[in-house]
Amino acid sequence: MGAAMRDDLIHDPKGGMPRLLEIMRRLRDPDTGCPWDIEQDFASIAPYTIEEAYEVADAIEREAWDELKGELGDLLLQSVYHTQMAEEAGLFSFDDVANAISDKMVARHPHVFGDESRDKSAEQQVQDWEKIKAKERAGKAQKGVLDGVAKGLPALTRAIKLQNRAARVGFDWPSTDEVLDKIVEEAQELREVTSEDARFEEFGDLLFVMVNLGRHMGLDPEAALRAANAKFTRRFESIEAALAAEGREPKDSTLEEMDALWDAAKMAEKQA
Length: 272
Description:
The protein is mostly helical and 272 residues long. The protein folds into three domains: 3-107, Orthogonal Bundle (Helix Hairpins), CATH 1.10.287.1080; 142-219, Helix Hairpins (Orthogonal Bundle); 223-271, no CATH class. It has helices at residues 3-10, 16-27, 35-39, 42-61, 65-88, 94-108, 110-113, 122-139, 155-168, 176-192, 196-216, 221-244, 255-271. The protein is extended, with a radius of gyration of 25 Å. Belongs to the nucleoside triphosphate pyrophosphohydrolase family. This is Nucleoside triphosphate pyrophosphohydrolase. One of its GO terms (biological process) is dUTP catabolic process. Residues 40-113 form the NTP pyrophosphohydrolase MazG-like domain.
């Protein structure tokens, strides 16, 4: 493609995926590209990739459908960025990435793209999916039960994935009763430790067991904590608004006053 044709593509509002790929190629051009973009590598861009994924999730959680298109575009750009750097290094191209995920989806859905029956429950499909993934891990020489659980996942999400993997081979409490007993035990151990290192360790153990309780109850710990964060934010903002109506800020108030305003916000939510 000549320079004039590439310029036309870059400025074509309906250029689609080829346009985005060409824009990224141009940004990374060592002679004419953007100095900041040229300096980046996989490690420096990875945090932005994680951030954009969370912004997509945030837009969905808020049902901000007018924002979702832009957030998905930002996330797509991250894939384009990584594949452009990979292509420069001779590793793989965007087409390779698209073909790889296409191959995976076809292989993991033999009941749609193959000759297996679609007459199965969602639970059976999950079991079949896990069997297929286990075969894939075996092909990658991942022998351990916990192999392949990404270390870069948020800690709560990784904890539940590790626990799910262990549960598949029978390493799991039979019911929530045992998990609740363990929570009490871990809380008592946290209460009794005296050193900073031990406190850090016991606090981590308690969080890990709390994740296990969520798993046994069919709850997503990450989503539950996000909801708790949102609730705390709403109620604290109600405190700020109530104080602002009196020309004050939280720092000008007492804990007792703020507790009363918190309870009022809580009651208002329940009555809404």
